[in-house]
Amino acid sequence: MKPVFVLLVSTAWTFTGAQYYYQGLMDYLENRLLAIEDRMLLWHDQSHRYHTELLDFKKLTAEAVDGLKNQHSVMFKDLEGAAVRADRVEREMDSVEAQTSPRACAGMADKVVEQGAWRLKESRGEDESEEEEGDDWEELHSRVSDCVEIISGIRSVKILKRVGAPKGMWTRDPRSSEVYIFNGTSGDDLHQFNSVRDFSRSPGVTGSRLIRLPSDWRGPGGAVYDGYLYYIQRGEADADVQVVKYDLLTGSVAEVAMIPVESRAAVYDLNPETVADLAADDEGLWLLYAPADGEPNIHLAKMDRASLDIEQIWDTRCPREKAEAAFVVCGTVYVVYNTRLASRSRIQCLFDVNDAVVSEEAPLIYFPRRYGAHASLKYNPEEKQLYAWDDGYQIIYRLTMKTKLLV
Ligand SMILES: *[C@@H]1O[C@H](CO)[C@@H](O)[C@H](O)[C@H]1NC(C)=O
Questions:
Q1: 363 lines ligand 1 (CB under 6 A)
Q2: Helices (H) then strands (E): counts for the chain
Q3: Parent domain of 157
Q4: 64 vs 333: CA distance, rounded Å
């Protein structure tokens, strides 16, 4: 009986002990769970707060981005406005330039028609502003006998065609309608056309009369006057430069004259092929040359057209450096300058043999924006226009004149 009791008591005791043990465990677990629940609640709160903060932040950044976008578009508009203003300024500058330079007739430059497709403006109907007078420019003659004029501007430009060589010269006899083409920088031949019209209508130089000379012409420096061709010839010896007067009718040399050149120096810095440059008009034959290598200025000689005697010599005080061409109008030399990288040719120096033109009254004249640089510029006093050779193109510039102030 006694062992049973002991067992019972011990079992009860064990039971009670286990009960206490489990109760403690439960309490502990419950506490832990509560703590975890608390923590989770806290986490939840925190994440909620973070979420809200994130939302706020998102809203803020969205606003900021919107603001930036607005600022950007404002800035963009400002830029557009600035561009428009810059454009306007540019146009104003262009128009100002056009008033003082040949840009006013630069529209004509768009009418580049090559190789005979170009046709003279015979149709009076064409409402070209520069053709307002309705005159066929080939008939435009004016008196230069009293010769009291200086160039005031370039009125129009006409591109006739492109013969070929980048350098060369072409000119018209002021006493006839005949046109002469010197393709290249030297040779013993030239092409003669009966008129500018014939030249512009024919493809290349077909339809021309080929003239062969007894010697080579050197450089685009020739001149034609009253049926005579005057050209520069250079002998074997360095300093042996001559002017040859050639009768185009009979095909014979009428006169040869040495010119006072002591070097291989060319007259224009930018066109070294132009040994010396001739111009012919009513008053005589003009020779532009560089007397020596070290001579920085262009010199001018007035020659007798018949005998080729030199009558007078001047130092024009116009520098050879950066000069590309020159021509003579009414006893005044106009020297045209450019840059080595061809930009805009401009008349920037002049010299009047009668001292009647003061530099102040002569405007700085720019040539219209063109292809390159002039290889030659030949003035025709009857028509008051320049026959130019520009990168293979044959171009005519019509000039406007004004009367010299001091005569
Ligand atoms: C002019 O000369 C250039 C090269 O020197 C040549 O290509 C061209 O055919 C010549 N033009 C004419 C019409 O002779």
A1: no
A2: 2, 20
A3: 103-403
A4: 70
What backbone torsions phi and psi does residue 333 show, to the nearest 5 degrees? -90, 130
- Pocket probe for ligand 1: among 115, 163, 189, the residue whose CB has the most ligand atoms within 8 Å is 163
Answer yes or no: is the C-beta of 183 below 6 A from any ligand 1 atom. Answer: yes
**For ligand 1, is residue 165 a contact (CB within 6 Å)?**
yes
Residue 192 Cα to ligand 1 midpoint, Å, equals: 15
pLDDT less than 50: residues of the chain:
1, 95, 97-145, 407
Q: How far, in Å, are 3, 18, 30, 275, 284 from residue 311 at the CA level?
A: 167, 147, 132, 21, 10
* Domain final residue pick, 66, 99, 132: 99
Q: Which of 72, 99, 126 is the last residue of a domain?
A: 99
What is the reported pLDDT for 51?
A: 83
At residue 271, the pLDDT reads 95
The answer on 269 and 290 residing in a single domain is yes
Give the pLDDT confidence score for residue 234 in this predicted structure.
87
* CA neighbor of 274 nearest in space, from 241, 247, 316: 241
Distance between Cα 290 and ligand 1 center (Å): 29
CA of residue 182 to ligand 1 center, whole Å: 10
- Which residues, other chains included, contact 79 with Cβ-Cβ below 8 Å and sequence gap of 6+? none
Query: What is this structure's pTM?
Result: 0.66
**CA nearest 179: which of 214, 147, 211, 140?**
211
Return the pLDDT at 150: 87
Query: Positive or negative, the Cα torsion across 345, 349, 354, 358?
Result: positive
How many domains is the chain built from?
2
Alpha-carbon dihedral angle through residues 246, 320, 372, 187, given to the nearest 10 degrees: 30
Please report the pLDDT score of residue 310 as a whole number. 94
